[in-house]
Amino acid sequence: MSHRNFNLLLLVAVAFLSTVHCQNSLPKFTVSSAELTLIINEVEEITLWLDKPVNQSLTLNFTENHPGSVTVTPEIFTIAANASGKFNISVLGISPGHVDITGVATPPNLVNDFGLFFRIIVANSQLIIYISFVVGWIYFAAWSVSFYPQIVINHKRKSVVGLSFDFLALNFVGHTLYAIFNSCLYFVPFFQEEYFNRFPRGTNPVELNDVFFSIHASVITAVTIVQCFMYERGEQRVSDIARGILGIFSTVLIVVIIMSSLGNLHWLDFLNTCSYIKLAITLVKYVPQAILNYRRKSTVGWSIGNILLDFTGGILSMLQMMLNSYNYNDWQSIFGDPTKFGLGLFSVLFDILFIIQHYFLYRSNDLIIHFNDSTESMDSLKSIIHLQPYRTIPGNDSAANLTESTEDEEEKSSHDA
C-alpha cells in the first residue's frame, strides 16, 4: 500500500471515529413506551426524555408511516434552549392498524434523535383483545399437552408398533432447532444485539412461552424416542428417506456454522436457518405416519388424543390470527405473508386425515387388532361367560329355556364323562 493511500485510509478512519464519538456525546432522546396499544377514540400520553440540555431551541416533527390511523398532538413540538428532562405528547387512535411514528429534530446534528420512535397499535375492540389472549393460552395448553397421550398409550401397550419412527425423528429435530432459535434470541445478549443491529426498530419476536413450548416439546419427544428402545417395536426403524432428509438438513447447518465462524455469515443467519428447517420439517413430518397407517390399514399405536389436541390447537391458532387481523385491520399478515397461516392450515388438514383414518377408514380393523392384542384368551373369556349365573325373570320363558338348556348340557357332559 502506498504512503498516500495509507494516509487517506487513516483520515477516513479518524473521521468515522470522530462521528461516532460526537453521536455518543450528543444529548439523547428516549421515549417512555416504544410500543402502545390503543382502542379507537382512546387517547394516551407518551413521555419524551432529553438527557442533556441543548444551547439552542429545537423543533421536533413527528411523521407516520400510515397517515390517518392516529393523531399526534402536537405534530410539531418546540423545545426551548437549555431545556431538558421530560416532555409529553398525546396520541389519539383514529382507525385500526399498526403505525410507526418517527420524530426528527431540527436543526440536525444537535441531538441524537434516533430514540424518537414508537409503534402504535390501534384496535377495534378491547373485548376482542381479551378473547384473543384467552384463545392464545388455550391453544398453547392444547399443543403442550398433545405430546402426552402418545407416551401414555405406549406405556399401557408396552409397544410402539404403529408409531412412525420417521415422524419421531423429524419431530425431534424440528423442535430441537426451534428451541435453539427461541432460547438464543430470548436469553443470549449476543444474538439479541445482532438482531437489533439488523432491525434497529424491531421488537424481539420470541416470548417466554415460545421458549417453554419448544424446549418442552423437544424433551417430551425425546422421552417418546426412549420408549422406542424400551418397548416392543417390531421391524420398525427410521427409513432411508428420513435419514436422507435429516442428512441434508445437517449438511446445511454445518455449512452455515462454518461460514458464520469464518465471518462470511452472521450468527443470526444460523438461527434463521434453524427456523427455516423447522418450517420445512413441519411440512413433511406428518407424511410418514399417514403412509404407515395406510399400509397397516390401522391406526392402533398412533394416539388419536394427540391428533385431537393438535387439531384443537391448530383451529384456535388460526382463529386467533383471524381475530387479530380484524381487530387491527391487519389482513396482510394472513394474505400478504401466508406462511404462518398456511402452516397452521396444513397441520389441521393432516389432523383431519388422521381423524378420518381412525374413526372411519380403519375403525373395524382397529377393533380386530385391539381384540387380538388383548391379554385374555378366548378360552378365558368363555370360562368367564360360563361362570356367570343365569337368572330367570318371572314370565320370561326364553330365559327359563336358556337356563334349562344349559343345565341339560352340563348333565350330558357329566354323563359322557
Please tell me about this protein's structure.
By secondary structure, the chain is of the alpha+beta class. The chain has 15 helices and nine strands. The protein has helices spanning 3-25, 126-145, 148-157, 165-187, 189-198, 208-230, 240-261, 267-284, 286-296, 304-327, 332-336, 339-361, 363-372, 378-387, 397-416, and strands at 29-31, 35-39, 43-50, 58-64, 70-73, 76-79, 85-93, 97-106, 117-123. It has a five-stranded mixed beta sheet, with no helix packed on it. A four-stranded antiparallel beta sheet has the order 1-3-7-5, with no helix packed on it. It is elongated. The N and C termini lie far apart (116 Å).
Question: Secondary-structure blueprint of this entry?
Answer:
Elements: H1 3-25, E1 29-31, E2 35-39, E3 43-50, E4 58-64, E5 70-73, E6 76-79, E7 85-93, E8 97-106, E9 117-123, H2 126-145, H3 148-157, H4 165-187, H5 189-198, H6 208-230, H7 240-261, H8 267-284, H9 286-296, H10 304-327, H11 332-336, H12 339-361, H13 363-372, H14 378-387, H15 397-416
Parallel strand pairs: 2-9
Antiparallel strand pairs: 1-3, 3-7, 4-6, 4-8, 5-7, 8-9
